[in-house]
Design brief:
This protein is α/β, with parallel strands linked by helices. It has 2 domains: about 130 residues, 3-Layer(aba) Sandwich (Glutaredoxin), CATH 3.40.30; about 80 residues, Serine Threonine Protein Phosphatase 5, Tetratricopeptide repeat. Helices cover about 60% and strands about 10% of the residues. The protein is built from 13 helices and 5 strands. Helix 9 runs antiparallel to helix 10, helix 10 packs antiparallel against helix 11 and helix 11 runs parallel beside helix 13. The radius of gyration is 24 Å and the shape is elongated.
Length: about 280
């Protein structure tokens, strides 16, 4: 007699194709995704990749995976194939295989899996990505309707920042900065904090200082005050302005004594004293 679990799995796979149906051209996959309003699965692979072949034999051939994957447009990209394929792999920073990247139809990264996932885990990943896709694709649609929507610009910018697409995320956050006068103060501070962190990474310390002071000037002050001051203090340290760093870090100790960053401020002050 067939067990109830076996029957459920059989019914879940009933009517599904034998494995995922793959597109072969990346640009064509994005076009189909846009027309169907579906997110995209990009399977990066190479001939020498044994784990990629294992994905094909197991995970991608699984009927439950194939059924859920019907809510995506799926495409294969050979990291050692055509110039176009190599460029796509470079754009999404594929440095190991297998790598699976999930995108919106506009090509913005939703999530990624670096390494092998079996058919037991991958359906959960697909379901999670579908939920994220609904949110991010809604932001993209809202931005098409109103390119100056500060809340949408910020939400999409923060998402891309979290996905480590700092250039595009920073561009969106900068646009949000100039359009967010009506947004909650906490959101305005967060936008400027992230932009300041980007500027610090680029060694643009004056721009970072301007952003952080702008955020600190918003009223009423918030719980993020210690973090803003700490980043400002570290900006001064990297900039070589030790005196300004000491004043800023001491302010954290004075005003936010119970905040964990107060101890980090003390440690940084000690390190500054040792570099005299």
């Amino acid at each position: 007699m067939i067990s109830s679990l076996a029957l459920s799995l059989f019914l879940a796979g009933a009517g599904s194709p034998a494995g995922i149906k793959w597109e072969r051209q990346f640009d064509e996959a994005l076009k189909k995704a846009k027309a169907a309003r579906k997110p995209v699965i990009v399977n990066f692979w190479a001939e020498w990749c044994g784990w990629c072949r294992r994905l094909d034999r197991t995970t991608y051939a699984d009927p439950v995976v194939a059924r859920i994957a019907e809510d995506f447009v799926a495409v294969r990209v050979n990291t050692e194939g055509s110039k176009k394929e190599v460029a796509v792999a470079l754009h999404y920073d594929v440095s190991s295989l297998p790598t699976v990247v999930f995108l919106t139809p506009a090509g913005r990264q939703l999530s990624r899996v670096n390494g092998f996932q079996g058919p037991g885990e991958f359906p959960h990943t697909l379901s999670r990505v579908l939920q994220e896709a609904q949110k991010v694709m809604a932001w993209e649609a809202a931005l098409e309707e109103n390119p100056k929507d500060a809340a949408t610009l910020a939400s999409l910018g923060i998402h891309l920042f979290d996905q480590e697409f700092y250039d595009e995320g920073g561009d969106l956050l900068e646009r949000a900065r100039w359009a967010d006068a009506e947004q909650p103060v906490a959101n305005r501070r967060k936008i400027r904090l992230l932009l300041a962190m980007l500027q610090n990474n680029r060694h643009h310390y004056a721009e970072a200082e301007t952003l952080l002071k702008e955020a600190l000037a918003f009223r009423p002050p918030g719980e993020d005050g210690a973090k803003l001051l700490f980043v400002l203090g570290r900006t001064y340290v990297a900039w070589g302005r030790a005196a300004d760093a000491r004043v800023t870090l001491q302010q954290i100790i004075n005003d936010y004594a119970q905040n964990p960053l107060a101890q980090k401020a003390r440690d940084t002050l000690v390190a500054l004293d040792h570099t005299k």
